[in-house]
């Protein structure tokens, strides 16, 4: 399986002014069907979780493999989060399930941030900035009206206080030749926080490695 590494790394900041805060370390970009398993239409949460797992494995120097979708489902059944019928199903997962899997398989805790429908993502920009400076992980983000899971690899705060998030979208289908292809097709992009669905709440999962491994 030949997956691209750090697909956001060649993307320029959305504005020349201001400050950019990016994740640290390496991850592989998991997306729909990338390992031959057909999950188009329901697997985005699993794929974002797999990208995060690849970052944890690399960052902590673990001799482990990134869990495939059946392993993720089996893990959630074994810890009693899901019923037996969940294994082999096409049921999607969100940030909370990702947190359980990361904790169970890698003994890594995650901070959870809930952004309500009445709240603004921009209000959390200082927290996200501090997270990238301190922990530098790949974040998972999903909501209700905007149920599409996505990775967040950085934040940009412009001089006039516009806030952008660096979206790593796992909904790509097919064989990727270059990172630039993902930029052209808007699967990896800087997205202004005002452009996220304002009628949706969002949950954000921020993996926190032990301090000696964080940087």
Walk me through the structure.
The chain has 215 residues and is α+β, with helices and mostly antiparallel strands. The chain has 6 helices and 7 strands, in the order βαααβαβββαββα. Strands 1, 2, 3, 4, 5, 6 and 7 form a 7-stranded antiparallel sheet that branches. Helix 1 runs parallel beside helix 3. The longest helix is centred in the first third of the chain and has 17 residues. The radius of gyration is 16 Å and the shape is globular. The two termini are 28 Å apart.
Summarize the structure.
The chain has 215 residues and is α+β, with helices and mostly antiparallel strands.
What order do the helices and strands come in, and which of them pair?
Blueprint: E1 19-22, H1 44-60, H2 69-78, H3 95-106, E2 109-115, H4 125-134, E3 139-143, E4 150-157, E5 163-168, H5 179-184, E6 188-192, E7 202-208, H6 211-214
Helix pairs in contact: 1-3
Provide the descriptors you would attach to this structure in a database record.
215 residues; alpha+beta; 7-stranded antiparallel beta sheet
